[in-house]
Amino acid sequence: xxxxxxxxxxxxxxxxxxxxxxxxxxxxxxxxxxxxxxxxxxxxxxxxxxxxxxxxxxxxxxxxxxxxxxxxxxxxxxxxxxxxxxxxxxxxxxxxxxxxxxxxxxxxxxxxxxxxxxxxxxxxxxxxxxxxxxxxxxxxxxxxxxxxxxxxxxxxxxxxxxxxxxxxxxxxxxxxxxxxxxxxxxxxxxxxxxxxxxxxxxxxxxxxxxxxxxxxxxxxxxxxxxxxxxxxxxxxxxxxxxxxxxxxxxxxxxxxxxxxxxxxxxxxxxxxxxxxxxxxxxxxxxxxxxxxxxxxxxxxxxxxxxxxxxxxxxxxxxxxxxxxxxxxxxxxxxxxxxxxxxxxxxxxxxxxxxxxxxxxxxxxxxxxxxxxxxxxxxxxxxxxxxxxxxxxxxxxxxxxxxxxxxxxxxxxxxxxxxxxxxxxxxxxxxxxxxxxxxxxxxxxxxxxxxxxxxxxxxxxxxxxxxxxxxxxxxxxxxxxxxxxxxxxxxxxxxxxxxxxxxxxxxxxxxxxxxxxxxxxxxxxxxxxxxxxxxxxxxxxxxxxxxxxxxxxxxxxxxxxxxxxxxxxxxxxxxxxxxxxxxxxxxxxxxxxxxxxxxxxxxxxxxxxxxxxxxxxxxxxxxxxxxxxxxxxxxxxxxxxxxxxxxxxxxxxxxxxxxxxxxxxxxxxxxxxxxxxxxxxxxxxxxxxxxxxxxxxxxxxxxxxxxxxxxxxxxxxxxxxxxxxxxxxxxxxxxxxxxxxxxxxxxxxxxxxxxxxxxxxxxxxxxxxxxxxxxxxxxxxxxxxxxxxxxxxxxxxxxxxxxxxxxxxxxxxxxxxxxxxxxxxxxxxxxxxxxxxxxxxxxxxxxxxxxxxxxxxxxxxxxxxxxxxxxxxxxxxxxxxxxxxxxxxxxxxxxxxxxxxxxxxxxxxxxxxxxxxxxxxxxxxxxxxxxxxxxxxxxxxxxxxxxxxxxxxxxxxxxxxxxxxxxxxxxxxxxxxxxxxxxxxxxxxxxxxxxxxxxxxxxxxxxxxxxxxxxxxxxxxxxxxxxxxxxxxxxxxxxxxxxxxxxxxxxxxxxxxxxxxxxxxxxxxxxxxxxxxxxxxxxxxxxxxxxxxxxxxxxxxxxxxxxxxxxxxxxxxxxxxxxxxxxxxxxxxxxxxxxxxxxxxxxxxxxxxxxxxxxxxxxxxxxxxxxxxxxxxxxxxxxxxxxxxxxxxxxxxxxxxxxxxxxxxxx
Length: 1210
Prior knowledge:
By secondary structure, the protein is an alpha+beta fold. Among the domains are: 2-168 and 193-317, YVTN repeat-like/Quinoprotein amine dehydrogenase (Methylamine Dehydrogenase, Chain H, 7 Propeller); 520-614, no CATH class; 993-1061 and 1147-1208, no CATH class. Helix 9 (665-678) runs antiparallel to helix 10, helix 15 runs antiparallel to helix 16 (762-772) and helix 27 (1066-1076) packs antiparallel against helix 28. Residues 341-576 form the COPA/B second beta-propeller domain. One of its GO terms (biological process) is intracellular protein transport. Residues 807-1210 form the Coatomer alpha subunit C-terminal domain.
């Protein structure tokens, strides 16, 4: 079974495929009807008006309608375009089991638990016939696909076939009066609309389903007696042909397959079974773990089935429809049904080469999956899934083509087989084969398929990677991590390869160096390389292209899926699902254009722009995105888009032309901003004049030092009675007298007096003082006033100086199309990138000569001025209209943004790691997690670490003195490319590498004999480990290993320190020294412990025990001479007198572990309890006490185990 789509939902009771679109309706036990797109895997719509389960649903063949029937006794007809129920048909008195539209007439047939079948006219919305006769629930009723028959199945153990031809006659308009009369009689005295043609009896229990064969006079039925029965009928009678047994529970639904000679049934025994309709035997069984099956549906056109079960539904195929094919030169070899065929691309001629299956053999999923061809020996390898994977080798002479006799092939077992050179092929071996095996190669990865990868090489595929393997040298040539690859397509020159998975395409070089990846939502079906190195591929419903840089686009939409075999120029050769070869003509202009841009073949680009019909938003957007707005400009007629593109490419001239055509304030303003950026003062001035933006205009004249025009602006402001404008212009001009005059005119006499006094206009100041009288403002004593004078402009006059540049490839190429031949020659010589001649041009803006010419309609002057420009009366604008209106008050109200979720909360929600919770400041949950995972109950040693985690995963910013400090969360593994909306886990101060360093420091202290400091270091490591986070599973194992190492040292050092405290008990001293040697220590430390124990025992005259330590010491091959010498001396002494004066609780022959609290041996076979965190062992009496080794966990507590990596949670 090839599952194409699966849903999870309530129990599915009814299913119906749309005849044309990739849609399926599923009616649920919960009363909801779902409309799914099974190709995209999305839920399109839900219809929820039935009260109770909906058991039947069916799409109309041509109208946008579907019908549903439910346990609320209602039949509803819906329009899925309008998303609503059009009307309800009432009449049934119990649950409705099935509903179905007639293929021609406006009828619906429904079956119900009220023991009747009703036929309705959905156009007149009436019931036109009630079929009675069953004496139990009617479980299903279906129209015959061609004839005027209805089949019904009932729990009364019968299947009935009804003749409804009289119903058809009754509903047809009568042609003559005689017919009309007989019809009136029928209506008055009651006539029979539908008669029972046959009653099929044979089932021992209630029948759940019956359906017609699409073309043959056959019926298939399934019942609660667990049997599927096959019936045949003729004009007069119907009889049982055979019974199919195999289901273990009630058969829910059964039907004939439209395309193949098979029967499909499903059952409450959680299985779908496939039966051979001719041999009447079981072919295949598909089972589900927990879900009973209830309903089946078959697609009217395509080879698709659907089944509904307890927790959803599946859409599936029974076998692959992709023909196996291989292209060699001008010939395509492919399989079609049971034949191997060839097709010549040049002559478009089809030839049958040979049959590879016997006729009449039903073979589900037995057809070849891959085909490999060797042109030298004219040999074919066909691989299929027969017997769990096998291949057949055919060697054919050219003259035996098309004879039609079945040849004996050489067969063998193997997952896949491909030719790797002229006369050798590689087989992915599963067991031995009959052909001559030359040599075997072990593959570098767990391979489940091999593909050709050039002479002598194979491409090996595993779940998550592909590898190119050289069979001769047995080396890996390249490796690439990929999703699961289904097909491999090499370019003609074998330099590039396309790896096709279900939803992605990976383009790589011949050494598997990754170039680009494309993701598709709809399944990828096939692909081929064209002559330009563009990869052309198909999905279920499109032909698309992929450029070498990963850009892709649609070439053509498809009605049915196709498999591309070859791309030649504008022709795509392909196979369809019926194995027919087709040639499709495409328009390659778009991708050739993009390819030329990518490869910087600007001459081709120019040619295509001139000669082809390239246009559309997509091309413009592409050019804009790739940094060619100047090229995009030549495709566009719309002035607004032209304006935007011109601004983007800095083409001021075009922008001015477009702005003039559009003539809107906003466009002039944007033009002014861009012109100002380029320093094109003339255009800035023109733009400000068009928008009547006098303030900006005045400031522009100030910065360019154009005092003459500034004085004109002053006059304009005077005429407009704009006092502020007047004052600003006077200030810009440095005209003090004018400023004093303006202040005087608006009755600001004190300001006028101060201005005049400071700037030394004493005559004016005296006159103003006289006017002010006693109110003369006093000037500050002893201060030197600074004069308000305008600064000198850095650069007077016109535009900024511009660089002289080389003429670009596209500049002017479109304007002077009439240059003809010379132009062509220039581009011929333009070695891919640039023209040869260096045309030096001046990039100038609008000439900023006499502005009066530009200003024309906006000029103002005094009437008595002899120049006659600046005519006041032409400016017919009131002051309100000059300035842009303020924004609408409603829209300018500030809306407070809604607060998001605090980062600490996100960390807690996303993680089950105690360290992340502590970093978020949620110590309580961190402690709960540690208690659950490691049985930790004493958190006092961890307190400071919790605080370090919290403060270390945040940064603190002081905004300003009165505001609180802002804390910012620091994320682990943050990169600049990370999305701002996705929060990563917290950055933690404790790293695994730090623990490694501490471990080394502990080792050094132990070697130096500083046991107290060493113990402190090791305990600190044990306390830090629960709050360390690592990334990979390998590191998790290393952390667990570290706990064991450190635990051994802590226990050993604790015993050694305890021994040193004991003065009066030599036997106990010897025991502790002996136990220390049984801790799992590094070899140098073990030697020191053994030497120590040996010395203690020798001093206490326990020579036999000392002999054991000396022997063990020598076995470690000590590097220090003194240790070897001492050990040998002890052995020599002990051998003379092998006795112990004191008896110790120590038996080195019997394996033991040491109790971490009482420091006594627990020999093998004795009961013990362990610490859930550090795994130290204890005598049973210590259960429930705090572990003395790690000082954190409770001995004998249940715990789930250390969790220190996100990879453990995935």
